[in-house]
Amino acid sequence: MLIPLNRHYLKAMLCVAAKEDVRYYLEGVCFVGGEGKLLAYSTDGHQMLRWIVCEDYQGSDFEYILDRFSIKRAIKSKYHVHLNIETAELVCAKDEDFLVFKGLIDGKYPDAKKVIARYVADTKTEKDPCILVNGRYLENLGKISRIIGKSNAIKEPPVRLYSSKATDGYTNIFTLGGVSNLIYIVASLRNCNETYSEDYAVTMDAEARDAAIVKARINNGFSVECGTSRHSHKAAASYAKSKSRVFTVLTYDDDNFMDADGEIWQYVCPTKAIKPKDVADVKTK
């Protein structure tokens, strides 16, 4: 089953997706089909874009994360872009010519639907007299507005702001005039009388930061006992929890980690740090 995708909307989604993030699954766009709708989400943990691709979806339930590189290639093809929900591929067609781009990311995307529902339900509540927003996100919103305007024959759709009081800090929801299937969420800075530290618009899975944690511990002179995998972070986390594939990681190079036996692993999930002097006494499992 092929679902047509608007190239301009795809380009806008990439404006919000993470870049070079340890939470690798945020570097793509998540497509979710079910309950009569097909939705797309992109986020970097501070801002989120939700696109209602279609509201008459009749296929089976699915959730795919497609990487930014396959989406960029599909956009640049200037062909009509479709999502094949059976294969999680982007199919681009023009006359009798077809191009297929594969870019499925193996990972668990945040529960964006739950996040959206929480913030949308809380709009139009008590307003903070002084809400601060990182100017870079407002600049990004302007870029998104211009991109979407090209698709809807509107030079620059007007932007409407709703302020939603989240659990910690304020979250701002933006809609574009004349565009009913897209909303943009961005975290506020705290009240200017308190601090300029930034809140998260989306609650992310703490496990996504494990690779960075392991690197930091190694840089501080420790080795780290980790669940390890060459396939996905989810698998590494599962091994760490079950203790079924746990090794002592001593060093790393780029995105790869080396254990005490010289084996190379791409994904790691720490269980505990071990002082360097104890490494010789540790046997890998």
Mind explaining what this structure looks like?
By secondary structure, the protein is an alpha+beta fold. The protein has two domains: 2-187, DNA Polymerase III, Chain A, domain 2 (Roll), CATH 3.10.150; 206-281, no CATH class. It is built from six helices and 16 strands. The chain has helices at 7-16, 68-76, 112-121, 135-151, 210-219, 233-242, and strands at 2-5, 28-34, 37-43, 47-54, 62-67, 80-84, 89-94, 97-102, 159-165, 170-176, 179-187, 223-229, 246-253, 256-259, 264-265, 267-274. Strands 5-2-3-4-11-10-9 form a seven-stranded antiparallel β-sheet, with helices on both faces. Strands 15-14-13-12-16 form a five-stranded antiparallel β-sheet. A hairpin with a 4-residue loop joins strand 9 (159-165) and strand 10. Helix 1 (7-16) runs antiparallel to helix 2 (68-76) and helix 1 packs antiparallel against helix 4 (135-151). The longest helix has 17 residues, at 135-151. The protein is globular. Residues 124-128, 166-170, 190-208 and 280-285 have low confidence and may be disordered.
Topology:
Elements (H helix, E strand, L loop, with lengths): L1 E4 L1 H10 L11 E7 L2 E7 L3 E8 L7 E6 H9 L3 E5 L4 E6 L2 E6 L9 H10 L13 H17 L7 E7 L4 E7 L2 E9 L22 H10 L3 E7 L3 H10 L3 E8 L2 E4 L4 E2 L1 E8 L11
Antiparallel strand pairs: 1-6, 2-3, 2-5, 3-4, 4-11, 6-7, 7-8, 9-10, 10-11, 12-13, 12-16, 13-14, 14-15
Helix pairs in contact: 1-2, 1-4
